[in-house]
Backbone:
């Protein structure tokens, strides 16, 4: 699940033979548009589905979730799990174990958080090129293929699909070296919703008896 952020959406690393060592200016124009749109919003609440496919291309798991973001803060709620960050501390809560793991937030430029996924994270850390447009129902998708400059990461390719009309991310598909694929698809998008700051902190009082594993 930490693949979201990748999420984690969201941490990615990519390699791809045959890709030019220069970024595609058409792809950059699209990515810049997504970044500009996101920066104009005070907050985002997005519902999504996560589909995990194994090496045989069969769906191994499928889950639904909701991601709330305000600046660099985020909260992701899925079945049995919550991932929360106030941009200083992150909490990963497992409902089944009633356990929360606490970490400090990696502020390095190479780390990929949900907020960075919607902004200009791509400029230094990735190579990218524009693929053909596709159409799904009434939606036209601009598809961008991305690889990271750090080739030691477990993910070797990311396909980013942008809704051409709304200039928002619709789908992120990550290809891992172990053969697994992780697809995050945005199913609902609400901008500028009023979100309290305490939404982005873990409240142990709401989880009596929770076991805290502090790794800071």
Residues:
């Amino acid at each position: 699940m930490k693949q979201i952020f990748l999420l984690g959406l969201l941490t990615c690393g990519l390699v791809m033979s045959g890709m030019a060592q220069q970024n595609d200016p058409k792809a950059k124009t699209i990515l810049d548009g997504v970044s500009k749109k996101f920066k104009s919003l005070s907050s985002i609440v997005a519902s999504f589905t996560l589909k995990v496919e194994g090496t045989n291309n069969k769906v191994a798991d499928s889950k639904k979730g909701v991601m709330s973001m305000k600046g660099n803060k985020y909260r992701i709620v899925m079945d049995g799990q919550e991932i929360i960050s106030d941009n200083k501390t992150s909490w990963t809560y497992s409902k089944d174990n009633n356990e929360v793991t606490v970490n400090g937030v990696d502020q390095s430029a190479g780390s990929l958080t949900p907020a960075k996924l919607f902004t200009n994270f791509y400029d230094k850390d990735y190579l990218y090129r524009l693929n053909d447009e596709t159409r799904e129902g009434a939606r036209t998708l601009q598809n961008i293929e991305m690889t990271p400059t750090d080739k030691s990461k477990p993910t070797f390719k990311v396909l980013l699909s942008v809704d051409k009309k709304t200039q928002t991310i619709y789908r992120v598909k990550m290809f891992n070296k172990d053969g697994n694929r992780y697809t995050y698809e945005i199913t609902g998008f609400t901008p500028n919703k009023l979100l309290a700051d305490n939404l982005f902190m873990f409240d142990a009082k709401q989880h009596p008896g929770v076991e805290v594993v502090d790794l800071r």
